[in-house]
Amino acid sequence: MKGMCSCVIGRLFQVLLVLLVAGDVWAGALTFESAVVEIPVEPDKNEVSVRFLYENQTGGPVDVVEFRTGCGACLSVGPKRMVESGGKGHVDALFKVGSKSGAVEKSVTVVMADASGARSEQVLTLRAVVPELVVVSEKKLQWRVGEAGVTRSVEVTMDWESPIRVMAATSTRKNMEVRVVEVVAGQRYRIDVTPFELQGAQLGMIRIETDCPIEKYRKHVIFAQVTR
């Protein structure tokens, strides 16, 4: 009986070893050269394409079966294909960056299946660096009731090879006086905002308009808030 038990245990160990080896050979996913790609984007571009390179370093075929995106920013992605062991290829994706500037991240998830049907996933990320041609120092100015006559300011700085001018700045609130001060022509401006009557809490907007030839940098908004 003791010998029989040892034999059974030995067979189970062999089966388990085979399964582990098979799993090591067949399981896994494509190996991407880089899962995060950083690309500088021209100021006038609203879309950016990126290529993610990969290699199948497993012992069997890997099938690219699906692409998942979290939002509508990914306009297209592909291709779906079977990649044999040792094979190389790429995933091409086209992302929309729109009117955003600064560091913009977009991602897509690649779903893969090995020969056994086991699935794995890899998140691919585009890190787009969109120039900020017009930089507004503050997004919101705040006052308290009783601070009528107190001027608060924001700096507007241009970062481009050609001059960009602030053409106008206006308030959606009639009790907010707005003045544009030219510090360095085509490069630096100051927007002074002065409330002349503050009887209660309120929220308004200061609209800043520039003459930048690229539309997405032409208009900017900051908030003007009064609290009790």
UniProtKB/TrEMBL annotation:
Q: Short name of one Pfam family for this protein?
A: DUF1573
* InterPro entries tied to this protein: DUF1573 (IPR011467)
**What's the source species for this entry?**
Sulfuriroseicoccus oceanibius
The protein in question is named DUF1573 domain-containing protein
